[in-house]
Amino acid sequence: MKTFQKVQPKRLPVVVASEIEQAIIEGDFVAGSQLPSEQQLADQFEVSRNVVREAFRYLQERGLIEIVSGSGAYVSQPSAAPTSSALGRYIRLLGHHDSIEALYEARRILEGNNARLAALRASAEDIREIESCLQQMHEGASSITLWSQADLNFHLAIASATHNPFLSVLLELLVDQLREVIAEGYFVDGAVERGLAAHARLTQAIIARDAEAAYDAIIEHLSDSEARVETLSSTVHSSD
User: Fold this and answer.
1) Which of 47, 130, 136, 228 sits CB 3.0–4.6 Å from 51 for a disulfide?
2) What is the pLDDT of residues 150-197, one digit of tens each?
3) Least confident residue range of 22-31, 79-88, 99-108, 150-159
4) Which among 76, 72, 77 has a CA at the least distance from the CA of 36?
């Protein structure tokens, strides 16, 4: 089991947190595993339990661990949520109109290439997942919550089908923004029908291993989606 050395007293909670973080990164504690207790770590570091407790809070804020009351601290599954949340705050500071344009520009660059690569690399399991997400979109078409989640899962499934972890992470960073624009577009007349048709075309292109058709399908869909969101945004602002 990983053991830790005594640390200097300066900024002890930060130092302890950094040591534990490094151990997690190096694989000494895998995702889902339980960390040693506060007392065990306090003994190893030769610090007080309060120092370890504060270090745990620091690690939890960074999304590295989850603290379960009465049980202990567990290593969290890797997540882009903290970064996505920070990105969302930055996007809101840019202003709604500008952020929509910038978001869709980024989506065309990222998701266009995701579609191409998915058509070339998707495994049978990847295709089943994409088809499952499409079916969930059909089944959830009458509910904005179900529709939005299924639509989001569809795009994430395509990113996963590239088998490039960097592309999946980059799209995950946009999750909060994607969820918002998907929900906004839902209220435009005909959006659900056009969305289902576009996602079906993209799915068929990936199944056919037609990279250019997949690219064309996602670009056409994103352009249509952006136009719907922009139309809705302009209508809302003009009524203010």
Assistant:
1) 47
2) 999 999 999 999 999 889 988 988 887 888 888 888 888 888 999 999
3) 79-88
4) 72
Q: Are residues 230 and 186 in the same domain?
A: yes
- Residue 234 host element (H or E): helix 211-239
Determine the structural domain holding residue 56 and report its residue range: 12-75
pLDDT tens digit sequence for 89-110 = 666 666 554 578 888 999 999 9
Mapped onto helix, strand or coil, the DSSP state of residue 74 is strand
Rg for the chain (alpha carbons), in Å? 22
Distance set, CA 141 to CA 136, 171, 189, 193, 196 (Å):
8, 23, 13, 9, 9
The confidence score (pLDDT) of residue 200 equals 97
* Residue 29 domain flag: yes
Cα dihedral across residues 119, 122, 123, 127: positive or negative: negative
One-letter amino acid for residue 72 of the chain: G
Q: Residue 1 falls within a domain, yes or no?
A: no
User: Which pair of structure tokens corresponds to residue 154?
Assistant: 């569809």
Nearest to 102 by CA among 90, 116, 118: 90
The answer to which of 8-17, 91-100, 195-204 has the lowest mean pLDDT is 91-100
Q: Is 2 within the bounds of a domain?
A: no
Task: Tell me the CATH number at 46.
Answer: 1.10.10.10
Count of structural domains within the chain = 2
